[in-house]
Structure prediction request, 799 residues.
Amino acid sequence: METRFLMGNEAIALGAIAAGVNLVAGYPGTPSTEVLETVAKENDGSIYVEWSVNEKAAMEVAAGASYSGARTLVTMKQVGLNVASDPLMSLEYVGIKGGMVVMVADDPGPISSQTEQDTRTFSMFSKLPCFDPASPQEAYDMIKTAYEYSERYKTPVFFRPTTRICHAYSSVTLDDEAAYKINIPEGFVKDSSRWVIFPKLSFKNHAAIEKRNDEMSDDFSELSYNSVINGSRTLGVASGGISFSNSCEIIRGLEDAPSLLKIATPFPFPEKLALSFLKDKTEVLCIEELDPVIERALLQVCGKYGLSVKIRGKMTGDIARSGEITKDDVRRYINRFVKGTDDLDVPSSLPGNDAPELPVRPPVLCAGCPHRASFYAVKKAMKGIETIYAGDIGCYTLGNAMPLDMVDTCLCMGAGVNIAQGVGRIKPDTKCFAFVGDSTFFASAITGVVNAVYNGADMTLVVLDNSTTAMTGHQPHPGTGKTMMGDIGNKVDIEAVLRGVGVEAVVHVDPLKLSEAVAAVKQTAMKEGVKAIIFESPCAMLFKPEKPVSVDTDRCIGCKLCIKELGCPGLSFRDGAVTIDDSLCNGCGLCSQVCPVGAIKKEDA
Amino acid sequence: MSTNIILCGVGGQGTVLASKLVASAAMKAGSKVMSAETIGMAQKGGSVFSHLRVGDDTVSPMISKGEADLIIGFEPSETVRMLPYLREGGAVITAIRPVMPVTAALSGSSYNGTEMISYLKSCSRIGRLVTVDTDEAIRSIGNPKAMNMVLLGAASRAGLLGSITHEDIIEAMKRKVKPQFVEMNIKALEFAEV
Prediction:
């Protein structure tokens, strides 16, 4: 038994390794990314690990391996589940052989996501069982249970932590390696009556799935992760995940503490356990983030068994219906519920309320980020021309911020290239641009380019190729040729893909050479049909910074043009001149090309 | 009883490593540790924090308002932003050097950090306030990345990390950083007057 200080995502990864996982596939996305990375790091070589091109590919690779008896793990964030949902919905009807855990990280807030969707709700929709850990230690232990259930019932199962579990750190007690399960897959055994989906098979399996989920509900009522902490006979709190951990601490300090029901398997819901909890209760408050999943399930139990317990939560307006529920929120909710007042244990005269105005810090492109140069080059080149700039998902979404203001739309991965076409269909005299990163290009933009070529659209695709998946922490992708097994594989060439699908005008340019970049954009964007500009410059985090630029304060006329045009965090204005923050500047030299009087000097190495 | 520490600053200042060192030191001493931190988009020039809890009775990694024993702030306005988390009589250690957000540079805001330090000095709720001129430290040490160690060292030598001693922090640093940086980090940990 060893105790290590682990991030929740690391605990999940080590739990999967202890459960004998044979294959792990996923696509990066905050807050899920570190799970797959940790398996790759801790891999003794016996586990196959890959960053797939997107979540759908990951799900299908894992399905094939599971059919062959392998224990598999698929990792993604909640919006990635939308991409993977096509294979997953059908896979539930077909079933699997080797245990398959679909790890989907939800992001209440949202802190770094487009949506606040709830994988527990997706679990009910898709009929997959769902496990919802309340701490890193529980995540480590519970994923092993998840594999057992998956194999016993031949179904993929969801494992659904939220950001505050994924990115929490905790002392975690690990199993001895001798206790690790070893799973030796037997390989794919042909059986077309089992692995080929047809309406007849789906009908048969649908009935079996419903029956199985009833059985699992009974199993889960006995499962130790679902539990009751007894307190008040009449008042109860029901919760799960991080909200359970927060509720535990708040309730512990109360004299008249309510009883606490912990739901670790929101679907199939442990109905019998809930029924025994609700007995004698008059009121139960449901504290959960995202959808009112526990609340609806308890209401259902009350309706089904004719219980007259008042179930409170999101649907009664007692709990916020959106956003993260903090520990302070939990304290307020429980105090109101138990005492009927907002009487906080914390004095109301907290410091900070009378503080001077605090600067706001929206996230910005890093100092030296080549995306800033790319956006600026397009902006300069298209000045005075009617344009639309469709953005996409990645660091470059931050190109929307002032002063660049170069992202007019952003929807989901790969959407920009099609949105640009749609805008152009309605207003053909608008020059339509779609910006897409290299990893996003491979993940889901290629079909959009094919659509544009096939349907004869008039648009400019701008590929921001920084040789990495930067936003999620620099994962390799098909364009880099590196794989998670440490091999240098086949590098997929973006230009070759574009030419292969019929884009004739493709130019490469270094965005940090401003005048060349502006000229290339002007020339390319004015052509007809589908054309592409590939801006190539590595992410500023990938290499050792060059010497910071310097300002000749005698020459600087204080016009602030560099700041107003570029908005680089390395630039600020002090005592009548621009100053460079040496701890941020990486010497990209873009500002020196913007300065009208040559006051900013880039030193040659 | 748990010791609750908040480390805060602007993305890229090294709050995460500092938090890891305290955690490692506490675990070595046999305590249970939990923490939570900002990861992802908000890291890029945004406000970042790390909640760190040492003690066997913690269930949640999050610290609630009025519960922090210590705030280690790497930027003065970020220190003030986290003040609602401080308990009555808690301690604050802060760098005095401001980091200007791009929005402030664009709007010509007058923010310069001194207003935050004056405000902190006026807060009766703060039991102990240590301000650190990290510019001086960085000039002397020669590496802007060492700032997190300067503040952490000030906290440990002032005895503000609960049962974790300054020696525990030095040992933890030796375990966590590359050998060629050990000497520089020792200098940083011992730099500030407390």
Q: What stands out?
A: The first helix of chain B runs from residue 15 to 28. Residues 3-135 of chain B form a domain with the Pyruvate-ferredoxin Oxidoreductase; domain 3 fold (CATH 3.40.920.10). DSSP finds eight helices and six strands in chain B.
